């Protein structure tokens, strides 16, 4: 019997999370759930990487403010692995809008409406296996 391939996801702690000192709390929750950290690095996002990362949102009203927000400070980029980690981390993160996100989730416990935009929702998590492969390649080309 062959083992299933290890499932990996891309997590980003966005500039609001890094600024507020919540990087460790996000990593703690990921590890406490039983996922394994495969790669972690603190970066200034590359505009070309961001353009590809958020290509699906190009042309939407929140696209440009989102890109500017992602360039406003350091981002912690993380590859986490484990069975079911892609939907599992989305579940840990909670709903996109921190005001709507359930208590117990990262966005529900730690995020709020800062009078700005939904964009300040602390974390990103890949939404499918295809997105995870694509996004890990974008943020961690050295792993390829
Ligand atoms: P993410 O990609 O960051 O994990 O979040 P998501 O799947 O829950 O949300 P998505 O629809 O992919 O949107 C990407 C990011 O864009 C910002 N956003 N702002 N109406 C708005 O102002 C708005 N909608 C989305 C958020 O930062 C969201 O995480
Ligand atoms: Mg998304």
From TrEMBL:
UniProt family annotation: Belongs to the NDK family.
Subunit structure: Homotetramer.
Species the sequence originates in: Paraoerskovia marina
Alphabetical UniProt keywords: ATP-binding, Cytoplasm, Kinase, Magnesium, Metal-binding, Nucleotide metabolism, Nucleotide-binding, Phosphoprotein, Transferase
Entry-linked InterPro entries: NDK-like_dom, NDK-like_dom_sf, Nucleoside_diP_kinase
Compartment(s) of residence: Cytoplasm
Protein name: Nucleoside diphosphate kinase
Catalysis performed (reactions): a ribonucleoside 5'-diphosphate + ATP = a ribonucleoside 5'-triphosphate + ADP; a 2'-deoxyribonucleoside 5'-diphosphate + ATP = a 2'-deoxyribonucleoside 5'-triphosphate + ADP
Cofactor(s) demanded: Mg(2+)
Primary residence: cytoplasm
GO cellular component, one term: cytoplasm
Family matches, as Pfam families: NDK
């Amino acid at each position: 019997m062959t083992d299933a391939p290890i499932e990996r996801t891309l997590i980003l702690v966005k500039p609001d999370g890094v600024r507020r000192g919540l990087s460790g709390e996000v990593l703690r929750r990921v590890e406490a759930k039983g996922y394994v950290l495969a790669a972690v690095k603190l970066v200034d996002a590359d505009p070309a990487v961001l353009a590809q990362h958020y290509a699906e949102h190009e042309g939407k009203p929140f696209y440009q403010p989102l890109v500017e927000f992602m360039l406003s400070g350091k981002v912690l980029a993380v590859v986490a692995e484990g069975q079911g980690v892609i939907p599992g981390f989305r579940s840990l993160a909670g709903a996109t809008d921190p005001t709507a996100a359930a208590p117990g989730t990262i966005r529900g416990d730690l995020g709020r409406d800062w009078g700005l935009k939904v964009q300040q929702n602390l974390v990103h998590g890949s939404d499918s296996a295809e997105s995870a492969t694509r996004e890990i390649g974008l943020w961690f080309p050295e792993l390829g």
